[in-house]
Structure formats: C-alpha cells, structure tokens
Amino acid sequence: MSDALTLVVAVASPLLLIALVALTPRGRLSVRIAMRNAFRRPAQTLLVALGLSLAALLFSASFTLEAALHQAMRAQQTADLGGVDAVVTPVEADDREEPEQQEEESEGAAGTGPPVLDSDDVRSIEDALDEPDAVVSSLLSLPVPVEHGRAERGEPGLTVVGAANNDDAVRLVDSSGAPLAREGLREDDILISGAASRDLRAERGDVLTVAGRTMRVVGVYEAGAPLAPPASAVVSLRELQEIADLPGRVNAVTLAYDREVTWEEREDPVHGELSSLARANDWEAEPLRASAHESADRLTTELSTLFLLFSQLSMVAGVLLIVLVVMMLAGERHAEFGVLRAMGMKRGRLAFVLALEGLGYAVLASAAGTLLGWGVGAGASRVLSDRVTDPALPPPRLEFGFDPVAMATAYLIGVGVITVVFALVAVRASKVDIVAALRGAEAPPRSRRRAVVLPVLALLAGVATAALGVRNGTATETLTGLTLVFGALGAGLPRLRVPQRLAHSAGAVAVIVLWSLPSELFGETGSGVTIFFLSGIALVGAGVWLFVSNDDLVQRALRRLLAPLPRMTSVVPIAVAYSVRNRLRSGMTIAMLSIVVLTITLSGFVTAAVNQIYADHRSVTGGFDLQASWVSPGGAPPDLRGVFEESPHVDTSQVGRIGGYADASVRARQIDAEAGAEEVGVWGADEDYLLGNRYPVFLRAPGLDSSEEVWDELRRSPNTAVVSGTMIPSDSAAFVGGGSDLELEGVDVLDEELPGDLRLEVAGPDGGTTTLRVIGVVDRSAEYLGDVVTSTEGLARITGEDASPTHWFVAAEDREEVGEVALAARRALLDHGVTVTPLQEEVEFRASSNGVVQWLLMAFMGFGLVVGCSALGVVSIRSITERRNQIGVLRAIGMQRSGIRRLFLIESLVVTVSGIALGVGLGFAVSPGLVDSLRVDLPGVAYTVPVAVLVVIIGATLVFSTLVSVLASRRAGDVPPAEALRDRT
Length: 985
Fold this sequence. Notes:
This protein is of the alpha+beta class and 985 residues long. It has 34 helices and 19 strands. It has a six-stranded mixed β-barrel. It has a six-stranded mixed beta barrel with strand order 11-12-17-14-16-15. Helix 10 runs parallel beside helix 18 (529-549).
C-alpha cells in the first residue's frame, strides 16, 4: 500500500464507520440525534471542536516535529556532498591488504605521490556501473599550500578541488544561495570558500600563491564543493593536474544518480558489478549519500528516545484536555440526558448516541489538529535550517516533507483517543438519575462499596508489583508498586476514621518524596525514558492530589494576598467554591498545565547542566587551546616545540604545554568477551601529552588512586591503555548521546574501579596482535580524545612503524593571548605543512549543535504551553456556558458585571498559578536527582538553575493565561441575567 493510499484509508475509515451505522433505520435515527446538537448550537459545537483540535494538534506536532528533526539530521549529514551520491577512490598504499605491495610503494612514495586513477580506469567504472543514467564525474582533490602575501596569511594544506568547468558534481552557491558560474574559469583563476576567505583574509580580486603559482580569486562560494571541508578552493581540473604533476589523473570518480536515494547502504548501485571491479583494482566504492542517510537515521533514533519522552508527556496533556472537554460537554447536557431517558431511551442507546457524536467530533477535530500540526512541523523545519550546520557552511534548505504515514498515524491517534474518551464518558452519562436530571439537582450518592473496594484492590496490586520489582531488581516495577501502595493508603485510610485531609496529604507527600529519590536506589532503570515518564505523571498526579486536598488553605492564602483589594476579596469564596465542588475537573486542568511546565523546567535544568561542560572549552579539550595537524604529503613531521623556538614569529613565553600524538584506525576486541572485534581509533600519545593533558579519569584500575597516577602509568608502560567513556555501557546513554562501536563487557559507569584483568586485543596492519591492559576510563565529555589511548611506543608496537606525533595540542600561558598564539603558530608552521585550528570556536560550534535538539525540545514544549493556556480559555468559556444559571442568580441578587468578571478571572488565575507553582516546584524537587544521573556519564555537568528559562516560563504563562482569562471573564460579565435564569440547558 502506498503512503498516499494509507492516508486516504486512514481519513476515510471513521467516515465509513459513520456511514455504515447510518444504513440501518435505528442507526439513522441515532446519527440524527447525535448530530442534532451540532447544528442546533453551532457556536458551542465550534468551541468543543476547537478544544479537541488543540489536543489533536499536540499529537500531530509530536510526529511532525520528529520528522523535522529527522530531516534536519539528514541535511546536516549530507551538507558537504553537493550533487554526489557515491564515489570511487583509489586506496592508500597503507590500507591495501598485500604487505609486500605496501613495502614496494612505501620505498618510492616520495616519487609516486598520492594514489590516482587514469582515463582507462574511469571508463571501466562507467562500463561496470549498473545505473546507466548516472552522471559520472572525475575530480582531483589534494591538500595544497596556499598563501595570501598581502595579509601575511597562509594554509599549508588547503583542500583544493580540481574539476572540469562543465562538471555537474560541483554546484557552487554564494552566500545568498545563488549559483556561482564556473564556465569561464581560466587556468589562473581560483574560487575559495567562505571559510577559506576568512582564514586567508582574501576577497574577490585578491592574488594568492598556490603551490608557487600566482592565482586570482574570482569568487567566494559558501557551499557546493563535494568531498571537501568547509575551508577549501576550486580550480580547473587541468590546472590542478599541472600543479601536482599528475597529467590526466584523478583521485575521485563521483556518481550522481538520476533518482532520489531511498535505499539502504548495502543496496546502493556501487555494491553491484562495480564492487567486484573495485576489489580487483584496490579501489574503494562508497555509497556516500546512502551511508549519510543511515548515519542520520541512527542519530535520529538516539535523539528520538529523548524526544519521545517529552512528546509522551505532551500527549498526556492532550488526553487530559480531551477528557476535560468531554466531561464538561456531558455535564452541560445532564438535563437533556434525563429527558431522553424519561422518553424511554435505553441506557445502551443513549451511550451509543453520545459515542457516535464523539466520533463525529473526533473526525472533525483530528483533521483540523493534524493539518495544524503539519504546519507546525513545516515552520520548525524552516527555523531548524538555520541551526543544523557548521557556521562555515550555509544552512541547508530544508524542504519539509509531507509524510502521509506520520499524518495518518497522528490522525488515527486523535480519532481513537477522542472516541474512546467519549465512549467512556457516554457509559457513565447513560447511568443518569432521571428524576435528579429533570429537576436540575445533584444525583443521590451512590453506594460506598466501590470506594472501599478500589483502594483495597490498588493496595494488593501495589504490594504484588513492588514485590515483583524487588525480586527482579527493577526500579520501574518497585516504584510503581510503592506508588499504588501509598495512593491506596491515602485514599482508604479515611474509611478507618483517619482525618481525610491528613490521609490524602500524607499519601500525596509520600508519592512526591518517593519519586524525588534517585531511581537507582530501587534497582535497574533500563533506558531511563520509561522511569522518567512515570515520574512526571506520578509527581504531577500527587501534586494535584495534595492541592485539591487542601483547597481551603488556598482560599485563606488568597484572602490574605488580596486583602488590600476588597473588591477582589469579596469574590474569592465563590471562585474557590466552584473549584472545591468540581475537584476532579479543577485537578485535571491544573495537571494539564503543570505537566507542560514541569517538562519545560526539567528540560531547562538539563540544558543548563550540560552547557556547563562547554562553558570552558579547556574542560572539553583536556586543557588545550589549539590543535595542529601535519598535512604535508611527504617528508617527516616536524618537531613542533623546536619550530616554535627557532621561529621569529613565536614568543615562546606565551606558549605553555604542548602534547602530540599519532593515530591509527585498527580493529580491537575485548579478551574473554563474547563480542567480536570492532574498528576503533587508537592514539599513541607522547610523554608531553600524557603528563600535560587535564582529562580526569573517573574509573581506574586497582592500585591507581588518581588521574595523574593513571597517565603516569600509561607513560611508563607501553602495554597499557586508557579508553573513552563511550566504550562503557550506560543506562542513561539515551540522554547524553551514542556510544562507541566497541563496548566493554563486565564494566559499568557506577563501578568504583575497573577489573584488574580488563584487556584488549588489537590487530595491527601486518596481521599481528598486541594486548593492552585497560587502566582507566575518561568520561564522555572528553571529545578530543581517541577511543583507545596508549603511549607512542605502544602504538609503534601495534603498527610496526614509527609513531612520531603528527598531531599536536597547544595551550597558551594566558587565555587572553590565545588569538595571538594561534596567529604566530600559523605563520611559523606554514612552511612545515602544519595547519593550526583554534579549539574554542570548534567547542562553541559543538555546543550550538547540541543546542539544536535542546532548542527543538524547548520549542515543542513551549508550543505545548501555548496550547495549554489556549485550552484553559476553552475550558473557561465552556464553564461559563455550563454556569449560566449561577451567573443569572448572582446578577439577580445584585452582583455587578465587574464582580462576575472578577469572579471568573480569579477562578482562572488560581488554576493557572497553581499549575505553574506545581510544575516549577516539582521541577526543583526532581532536578537534582536528574542532574546526578547525568553526572554518572558526564562528570563535568554542574547543577545550575536556569533563571532565564524559569522567567520566560512563568512570565509567558501568566501573561498568556491572564489574557485568555480576561477575555473569558468579559464574556461571563456580558451574560444577560434574565436569559441566564430562563436557560435550563
């Protein structure tokens, strides 16, 4: 079934159900009765539909915003591909399988240069490709020294892409998004990227020296150079071939398919006949776009776990809104139900009619809410397009995709939830007391047997569930069972002559304290999402229970607060009396607001805590400010400290610690573990780095009592290693990102120390293996660290080659002088083929990238807050309709319009302030434990109160809800007393 057909079937199914019911005579009568009120009172129908649409909007927004996040991740992963879908490249000599061939090529490496393809190779690729309509392009991409003499700036290894002027693989665009023409590009012309322009301080018309040749900048592009980093340049293919002395040679053959890549990586056309050709010639065929899509999908899956948590809580708020609207609708028509029952309608038929009416509302409201949710997703895509890429690249244009399956799912959820709620309320409403309904009086109290049986059953179920959780060691069952026990005791003790307020308050406080404790105390927490979702529901439910059990205290507090305003104080008892009389309705309204406020508050606490890691870039980089990398294609890497001492550009008194490392990608496995070998990055760090970095080691081998002892042992023992925290499984990993491909068994982040026999078997390029004993684990915030770190000698044993540092980290003596040190280092290292990158800018970008997801979550919950406040207005207006008789009586005994307005305004503000206070208060109660759970994986997080977020939450909620309440109260004051007293509906 196609996606479009899925949407059509989903929309048509409820309508078809109504049509089938209408085919029978009795069904036709039921449909007419159900739809009568909709046409008789269109204003009220529209109001009910609006309230239900707001709830359906939350469902739809959850799906569409997740789709926007998925698309944003795909755009981020494919931003630098341009029009390229796949690529074929020759394999580096060191990556080939034949050791003898490696030795032969290494002897003549200086003369042969990089691996390349000739015209015959390109032709064979075209002939072997299974995709006949694919566009095949030939590129040459090389690191080339580029200098800008006038600005005294240069890059020893700027990536320069050579392409034919009519090659469609290179689609350059400028800062405005307009295409940048290359048809007239001459041999002495060069196009540079915006990042390169900023690094070299070069603009259009400037003259650059490219590998000794003078070239003029004829344009600056912002994107479109395929397979190139942000700082890059584009020249004609022939010119770059002459510069590199590689006539007729290329090192990349790109493929652009004539259709959208929707398949998996293993199904890409390059894995057909082309794969055998690539293996036979030591080439590598990579399905770049399909691989990028899979990477984005994995990242989205990890992020969706966190998004699912908040969307679930928003859906709960939506369900509460639906229940509120339906209950108010049923309450308003209480007398009508009594008339129908008095005329002979059976309970079953009455329940069926009301459920059928609910199905009609469900179809209308879900359709409207789903369309509005799609609009929200489209708007989020436009905003996200400015936030998902490196600042050096232009924001990719996100065309929000219309996902019929997601839309159909959201629509059916809305229809299903609204219909089920209507059906449950219909069953309850069908049991109306006919006499009481006709008189407009309260129904006589029902048997108290149920009030005794339900707490007993809940108590027994709670004890059984808690016992099961204790036996299995799972926190979810234990906490759920204890919650049921405390709730049942609080509800049942008044039957044993315990004061009701004391019993209810004690039960609510016990639940709040229970869920405020660290969940790890009660057993395994699993992924953390379920336990967090349950804690939000339990805390809000207990807080509302505590509030409604002490509503008289709220009335006293309001009187004291409004004592200076006598006119406001006079209506407080009446305003609070309605809330006391309708505790369930008031409690649900407060819960709806407090759930949204609580989730935003907790999201603010998490964001503020994680951002503390990036507040100081040195905490992420190990205490360093600059990173230098050797990019020269030949020769030996320089002695960085020696270059600084000899250079006239560098003031060595400004340079602090310097540490270097070499790296290699190898396969490793844990000895005595079930998992197989995985590819990991291994660093061979020199003595200066091992003694100079500031990364804390939070898990250490027995006998090592500090981080300094671990790094010193690593320096002295070449058969030891320190690993990244991403290799340690964690229950809270869903909240802090993904892990490494190789996960160590028998180790947990909560352990006090590492096992003494934890070892890795690392395979070298020659097929031999080396055993490394793991003596430490660095936390996940160490983003500038390899998966496995050993000494220089240790890496040399693995690879069988010299492991002299090719990358370095540099720390400035004074933080204020980092910019001066970076500029001096660039000038000193330009002739040595070493690039220099300031780390603070990269750390800030990573922080902003993490902020994309945080921003999306905050925006989604903020949107839920707007919906909640709007729903408060809908509930208030419905309350006015239901209480027209009360308004008429109050006006008849002398209360002015202004008094009625103050009455409803205070009533709405009490609910609003209670919801805000409950949500923020519970946020403060739960946030310390939540931050502590994050600290297990990220010791750098710090508990920080998000003052700005709290001010925005409280201020925006109060302003918006006050505005809605004022509008609703004005409507209440305008009700004519004579009409209100005559109104019996």
